[in-house]
Design a protein that fits this description.
alpha+beta, Hypothetical protein af1432, 3 domains, five-stranded antiparallel beta sheet, four-stranded antiparallel beta sheet, globular, HD_GYP_dom, phosphoric diester hydrolase activity, HD-GYP domain-containing protein, DUF3391
Length: 416
């Protein structure tokens, strides 16, 4: 049985080992998350910060006395998925008997959410690094320890789904293995919402997305961090990471749905995936979701051996991969992220190039864009923001453009 327990902060005592702090990690009063409580002032500071629950490690400090009294939070509680959401309608395609909640219906402006999203990414990077380190030392990792982080990710996605996905996309080579997990968790949560999944499945999707690549901790560093394309032999080694991660999660007591995402997110509907070459009927919904989210973040991220795809180009190319993804899940994913996601370079009917700066509230085809380049004069122009959904707007998107073909650099400055 795991020695990690979630308890009410009010039951903290000196002598307990604080493993993780629950609630919001963005405003707790400590520079570190794990330490032995030796001072009553530290307990008081936790309570004064409004923190309602914490995780303690009973193998490193005093245990909780008197068992588990009524009212103690469950180890798998997930308040993030229970946030009240807007009831706006959208042209969605949820699973039978379920209602999609439109991801574009965030309640907080993008600019207001970006700083919070940056902090979540920093915290997420730190926690994934810690889990990689624990696994490399031969220790187990506990699913429950990531719940506070997944709650933060979920809450950010509910407030404004674009902010966190955009920040997480701007990862460096050194950050990739860690921030990729944060991004996939956010994408899984947004997709679960679009598919109309219930709170339990949404919780598993978010946790599984965050932990789906833990098996990479067991890969040789010279293969994992290779700056060029892998050889066939190296790729064969890397393909073992899904089974290795699933086994590590089982040993840590993770739920079957979380284990399955780690094990099967590289399976394909046509049976040409790995590790077990499963075919359509054998692949779970959560694993099908994981396949789409994992690939999208991978191809739109900076990698040591290739330039990232523009988000809109990625959508177009992934749609052409016949037999790779579940079509219904992929279509829902497009609706959750947008046909023209934030940061996408697009050509306008007016003869200008623009970058998408905000998804359309009512139409996937009419986002807000920032116009910056004239195709007629072949030069940059005074930047202006245009809402294609405005009734008075006469411009429209003709299609996506590849930034590499135009030689544009640092387009992020236009939208972030």
């Amino acid at each position: 049985m795991s020695s990690i327990r979630c308890i009410p902060a009010a039951r903290l005592q000196v002598g307990m080992y604080l493993y993780k702090i629950g609630g919001s990690w963005l405003q707790h009063p400590f520079l570190r998350n794990s330490f032995l409580l030796t001072d009553e002032d530290d307990v008081r500071r936790i309570l004064d910060a409004g923190i309602e629950s914490v995780w303690i490690d009973e193998s490193k400090g005093a245990p909780l006395p008197d068992g588990n009294p009524a009212g103690e939070p469950n180890d798998t509680s997930f308040s993030g998925a229970a946030v009240e959401l807007p009831d706006a309608a959208v042209d969605a395609d949820p699973l039978p008997g379920r209602r999609a909640v439109p991801v574009a219906a965030g309640t907080v402006a993008l600019a207001a959410e970006l700083e919070r999203a940056r902090n979540i990414c920093l915290i997420g990077k730190q926690q994934i690094q810690e889990m990689f380190g624990e696994l490399r030392l031969g220790n187990t990792v506990c699913q429950q320890t990531v719940v506070p982080l997944v709650e933060e990710i979920a809450a950010s996605v509910w407030r404004n789904p674009v902010a966190l996905l955009s920040v997480a996309r701007l990862k460096s080579h050194d950050d990739y293995s860690y921030l990729h997990s944060v991004a996939v968790s956010a994408l899984m949560l947004a997709l679960a919402r679009q598919l109309g999944l219930d709170e339990e499945q949404t919780r598993l999707a978010g946790i599984g997305g965050l932990m789906h690549d833990l098996g990479k901790a067991f890969m040789p560093l010279e293969v994992l961090n290779k700056p060029g394309k892998l050889t066939d032999e190296e790729f064969a080694i890397m393909k073992t990471h899904s089974a290795a991660g699933a086994q590590a999660l089982r040993e840590g007591g993770a739920e079957p749905g979380v284990v399955d995402i780690a094990l099967s997110h590289h399976e394909r509907m046509d049976g040409r995936g790995y590790p077990h070459a499963l075919k359509e009927p054998e692949i779970s919904l959560l694993a099908r979701m994981g396949a789409v989210c994992d690939v999208y973040d991978a191809v739109t991220s900076i990698r040591p051996y290739k330039r990232p795809w523009d988000p809109a180009v990625a959508m177009r190319e992934m749609a052409r991969w016949d037999g790779h993804f579940d079509k219904r899940v992929f279509n829902a994913f497009v609706k959750s992220v947008g046909i023209y996601p934030l940061g996408a370079l697009v050509r306008l009917a007016s003869g200008h190039l623009a970058v998408v700066v905000e998804p359309g509230a009512d139409s996937l085809l009419k986002p807000k864009v920032r116009v910056f380049y004239s195709l007629r004069s072949r030069e940059k122009i005074l930047v202006r923001t245009l809402d294609l959904a405005d009734p008075g707007c006469t411009d429209s998107i003709v299609g996506p453009e590849n930034p590499e073909q135009w030689g544009f650099a640092n387009l992020e400055a236009l939208w972030l």
